[in-house]
Write a structure and sequence with these properties.
The radius of gyration is 17 Å and the shape is elongated. About 45% of the residues lie in helices and about 15% in strands. The chain has one domain: Glutaredoxin (3-Layer(aba) Sandwich). The chain has about 140 residues and is α+β, with helices and mostly antiparallel strands.
Amino acid sequence: MIELLPRLILSIGLLVIGWGVYRLLTAFLLMKSTRNGAGLESFISGKPGILYFTMEGCLPCKTTQRPVLESLVEELGAKIQVIEVDVVAQPEIADRWGVISVPTTIILDPSGAPRHFNHGVTLAGTLLHQLNQDGYLPAASFSGD
């Protein structure tokens, strides 16, 4: 039993360090992307958006992330915009935003500034929570997720 205690402490320490590194990386990517605006040529100022990085061969993008984004657009209509960037066709944009994997979604405030950086598949409830958390949408209920 005593032999397990150091291993448990080490495991918890590694988890805390990993979580801290993830938070620092996310903060760095948000700070870096705040300065560029690349890929936002079609962004309509005045309403929040989701910048969605994908590529043709990405199975989770096709089977999970895209349907989630489509359901959000269907539910929220003109209150939200989704800007899709193919990382193969536009690698310079993905590089400037610090995208390291697909799918990646970035919540944009109504001025186009990034507020939340999501690596991997992000469910509708999380995206909606991020939009509501910052007050970009009126209180809304979302039936999907």
